[in-house]
Design goal:
By secondary structure, the protein is mainly alpha-helical. The chain has one domain: Four Helix Bundle (Hemerythrin (Met), subunit A) (Up-down Bundle). Helix content is 62%, strand content 5%. A two-stranded antiparallel ribbon has the order 1-2. Helix 2 crosses helix 3, helix 2 packs parallel to helix 4 and helix 2 packs antiparallel against helix 6. It is globular, with a radius of gyration of 16 Å.
Length: 156
């Protein structure tokens, strides 16, 4: 039977590849478009996924969240907003996901139930290992919705 960590790693890589493909295939003029002028653009969401991958990889590596900024979401928004083009966003996503997946695969079975404080409350490490995947899947749905709003109804 496959290890939990190997399944998470495989699913996470698949989601990162799909998110990258989805974003690269969007018309360039739509990457920065925001629904109703209020939402976050596809570009911002991919950049956020890249940042979250890095931050949560550090949580996995350190088994701690002490290093995270006090204004977590403000810093996340600031860092994601600094990414100006899809090539940079996808490059950072792939690079950070690679490191993340390596750490997930190396994570010891006996530590899966250990708990770490996250911004959503205390979480077992088995859930933390799956954080990046769940975050990307949420944003894939958001980006698919953005696509339907500007008229792209193809399912890719």
């Amino acid at each position: 039977m496959a290890r939990y960590q190997d399944i998470v790693a495989m699913e996470t890589l698949g989601a990162a590849k799909y998110l990258s493909k989805l974003t690269r295939e969007m018309p360039e003029e739509r990457l920065g478009w925001t629904p109703l002028g209020e939402g976050r653009s596809a570009l911002h969401q991919v950049a956020e996924c890249a940042v979250v991958a890095d931050w949560v990889a550090n949580v996995i590596e350190r088994r701690s969240t002490d290093f995270l900024p006090k204004d977590l979401f403000g810093e996340l928004n600031k860092e994601a907003s600094s990414v100006q083009d899809v090539k940079e966003a996808v490059s950072r996503l792939i690079e950070n996901t690679g490191r993340y997946v390596r750490l997930v695969k190396e994570f010891p079975d006996e530590e899966l139930d250990n708990v770490v404080p996250m911004w959503t409350g205390d979480q077992p490490m088995w859930r933390v290992l799956n954080w990046h995947y769940r975050n990307m899947m949420y944003h894939i749905g958001q980006i698919n919705y953005i696509q339907t709003l500007y008229g792209d109804k193809e399912m890719r």
